[in-house]
């Protein structure tokens, strides 16, 4: 502590496949030797710049290998000796090179911090909580796709269940019924945060249904969500691998889908045309990522209005898109522009595939389409109305197939998947 107050330090949590990196501090560390922590160091300068330096020095990961997710509010720990600035980054891989301040690295579920599986530096769980996903962060996220957000929702449920388990161990146990009621309410709020995203609803329902069968308490929810997270990652990976088999030559895509991005990496096409995907223009980031990740593939970024023109003139072989939701009749709900691209592709005889894990199949016929802020389209003073739909519905007959973890599924087979998923909704009826 300085005369002016606590010492500022940064702590970075690197996340990969829903686990975070923790490091065992060595005898060479300046403090808390033999305890587990995140990537940390004194914030001698601007914390935002310092945390990047610490990631490079302590894990040997460059800026290109990590994506900043969130910076949390600082918190004071150890009798207000330290002011911790917490950060969360997504890491593209788990290969880290440790410096002399650490003896060991481990990728763990954050709940292990709360439940005391390891002796940690003071305030580590509190620091994580300030950057962890929340119901609100999921509700307002206009950049990431449905699969990404569904896993974040499972993490919210997992983290709260883990904390309840830890609190029960500390004070002798909570009432199981109270734990269940709290977690069931949280599950409902997560589902309502993005009602248009069937995959979020299905994955949360699957986790709660598993816990309903196993005991209806925090421990059951924790075990079930950990299993659901692993299953979700595996399903998305298999769907991407299957879609890679449909990718070749020249491919056109739009919006931001992590599953599509993985399929394009694995498929290694000759050229990828990427629509800007206004109004958020997430296509620009997708184009940059593909250019870095698939160096042998040429990438063309273009306006949304040019999609039909390029399909007619650029010898596109395949249109590959994600899907926020697959309706029981085989239609898909996805970022606005998908419908127009599919119709234009059908006119030119270009096959259109939507890649989506089967959890994205909706159990409902109704369509809930989200809209963006009018100001992103027009913020002038003229008395005009603004339409800014962020999702549209693509007819089933404009799709060649839907690529899931089980392979290519035709529209007539989707209803059977929806019926299976309806079984997981029954936990809320009891």
What characteristics describe this protein?
single chain, 430 residues, alpha/beta, Nucleoside Triphosphate Pyrophosphohydrolase, Four Helix Bundle (Hemerythrin (Met), subunit A), Rossmann fold, 8-stranded mixed sheet, 7-stranded mixed sheet, 18 strands, globular, NagB/RpiA_transferase-like, NUDIX domain-containing protein
Describe the structure.
- This is NUDIX domain-containing protein.
- Residues 5-133 form the Nudix hydrolase domain.
- It comes from Saliphagus infecundisoli.
- Belongs to the eIF-2B alpha/beta/delta subunits family.
- InterPro entries: IF-2B-related, IF_2B-like_C, NagB/RpiA_transferase-like, NUDIX_hydrolase-like_dom_sf, NUDIX_hydrolase_dom.
- By secondary structure, this protein is an alpha/beta fold.
- The protein has three domains: 7-129, Nucleoside Triphosphate Pyrophosphohydrolase (Alpha-Beta Complex), CATH 3.90.79; 135-236, Four Helix Bundle (Hemerythrin (Met), subunit A) (Up-down Bundle), CATH 1.20.120; 240-364 and 386-423, Translation initiation factor eif-2b, domain 2 (Rossmann fold), CATH 3.40.50.10470.
- The protein is built from 13 helices and 18 strands.
- The chain has helices at residues 47-59, 111-114, 124-129, 135-140, 146-171, 176-193, 198-214, 218-244, 258-267, 282-293, 307-313, 338-348, 414-422, and strands spanning 7-16, 19-25, 36-37, 39-42, 66-71, 75-77, 82-91, 102-108, 250-253, 271-275, 298-302, 318-321, 325-326, 332-335, 352-355, 391-394, 401-404, 407-409.
- Strands 1, 2, 3, 4, 5, 6, 7 and 8 form an eight-stranded mixed β-sheet that branches.
- β13 (325-326) and β14 form a beta hairpin.
- α5 (146-171) runs antiparallel to α8 (218-244).
- The longest helix has 27 residues, at 218-244.
- It is globular.
- The model has no long low-confidence stretch (mean pLDDT 92).
